[in-house]
Amino acid sequence: MVELLLQSGASVNAVKAKGSTALVLAVAGGYTEIANALLSGGTDINKKLLDGVTALSCACASGKLEVIQTLIDAGANIDVVDQEGSSPLFFAAENGHVAAVQLLIESGASVVLVNEAGYSAVAGAMTFRGGQFIAGGGG
């Protein structure tokens, strides 16, 4: 269906009224095939929403490993930050997605970035998850 829309001239970078893109909606839902079709159609992988969040940050917040890997492989900026200075690693850590954190670090994500509140991804994980993530209790 997505391929048909793209062949018909649909814009892969169209933005909804609230700033969402088709790629962000696809990755938030974990729809890797749709994300791949949009990426093949030339969508801007690093396009930011109104709050500065990208598709990779959305995927990391929800812990969708297959989608995260797809975006990294397609060239997503792994250290992009939103308006608050939070990177994809921060989103994965604060939501307790251990495997996503590991994938990001193995892919070269910076572990020293600090957001505007002064938190690194590790500090954010401890603050938002009560240290559970660091102790291995994250999911």
UniProtKB/TrEMBL annotation:
Q: Which GO terms describe its molecular function?
A: ubiquitin-protein transferase activity
Q: Name one GO biological process term.
A: protein K6-linked ubiquitination
ANK repeat intervals:
18-46, 51-83, 84-116
**InterPro entries listed in its UniProt record:** Ankyrin_rpt (IPR002110), Ankyrin_rpt-contain_sf (IPR036770)
Q: Does the keyword RNA-binding apply?
A: no
Keywords attached to this Swiss-Prot or TrEMBL record, sorted alphabetically, are: ANK repeat, Repeat
Specify the protein name.
Ankyrin repeat domain-containing protein 50
